[in-house]
Amino acid sequence: MIVDIKVPMFSESIHEGTLLDWKKKAGEHVSRDDVLVEIETDKVVLEVPSPQAGVLKEVLKQSGETVHSDDLIAQVDTAGAASDAPRKPTETAEGVAPAKTAEEGRQPSPTVSSQTEEQLSPAVRRLVLEHELEPEAITGTGKGGRITKEDVLTHLETLASTPPQRSVSEFVPSEVEVKQPITTLTGERDERREPMSRIRARIAERLVEAQRTAAILTTFNEINMLPVMQLRGRHQERFEKRHGVRLGLMSFFAKAAVVALKQYPIVNASIDGDDVVYHNYYDLGIAVGSSRGLVVPVMREVDRCSFADIERQIAQFAEKAANGRLSIEELSGGTFTITNGGVFGSLLSTPILNP
């Protein structure tokens, strides 16, 4: 029986995702719940598991391609047996292609420079045709040098930002003789360009949007943290032995924030249309930085959490953020947010609201 593998249904705020590297190849045996591929959205990374055991019959969407909810991306044959090796490039859905000659067999595999329009995905081919581009001039970052939609957009941005070449004669009159060449720079001036991940692209989009649309006010207050530092020093070792986690500053910040929010409920409220909605619970967003970008997972009912509970949850959030394993539910519904810029050596910092 052939089982279709489809993209999971995204939440309302997520419209599309990008396929990351496939964990299995066509022809390989897969077990039930084996992760076949991961999909990166602008908020989280989703895993697509195999619903049944069998053989990955066909991969219909390649790494780097953009997909939407319920798109068909692969098929698993539950009655098939694992082949000795992944399907060879010469095999097609209709059968085995004719054997190549010895001369053809010595040719190198296709690279970016040899990709034709027929070898491009539909989205990439449409962009190439619309903008009259040459595929050979585009650097592919997909699997095996494949040109992705993001590669084409990056190429277009480069073309738009590159000024037209002008000859020296346009600037220097013909009768003027240039006797001494201008001193040139001899140091290394390398540049590296790479496409942004969906998470970083969404962060950039939302932060710029907030600067245009949000009413942002910053005020600074200074307090004496010495009593807290002394308290941590006295109890740090015993706290860590008992709870298996270090006693950090974020648990103090979270508890202090809850005390303040209880005293000033309007700060813990939100606006819905013409109404102010007061929340009698305290779900704090904790800003967590990772190599993938900044995310704000939400810690629920912090007023009922102990210091150890808070420190454990923060450590779990940091690990999940680094591995792209945070769920949509963990990123939604906060009533107040804490960002600790001190870990970056900052003395003062101005936050930018996330719309």
Overall mean pLDDT: 81
| Main pleated-sheet profile | 4 strands, antiparallel
Question: How are the strands of the biggest sheet laid out side by side?
Answer: 1-8-6-3
Q: What ranges have pLDDT less than 50 throughout 5 or more consecutive residues?
A: 82-96, 101-114
Overall, the morphology is globular
Distance between the termini: 46 Å
What report would you give on this structure?
By secondary structure, the protein is α+β, with helices and mostly antiparallel strands. It has helices spanning 102-105, 122-130, 149-161, 198-213, 226-243, 250-263, 307-323; strands at residues 2-6, 17-22, 29-30, 35-40, 45-49, 54-59, 66-67, 72-77, 91-92, 95-96, 270-272, 275-277, 284-286, 288-290, 293-295, 298-299, 336-338. The chain has a four-stranded antiparallel beta sheet, with no helix packed on it. A four-stranded antiparallel beta sheet has the order 5-4-2-7, with no helix packed on it. A three-stranded mixed beta sheet has the order 16-13-17, covered by helices on one side. Residues 82-96 and 101-114 have low confidence and may be disordered.
Question: Nutshell version of this structure?
Answer:
The chain has helices spanning 102-105, 122-130, 149-161, 198-213, 226-243, 250-263, 307-323; strands spanning 2-6, 17-22, 29-30, 35-40, 45-49, 54-59, 66-67, 72-77, 91-92, 95-96, 270-272, 275-277, 284-286, 288-290, 293-295, 298-299, 336-338. The protein is of the alpha+beta class and 355 residues long.
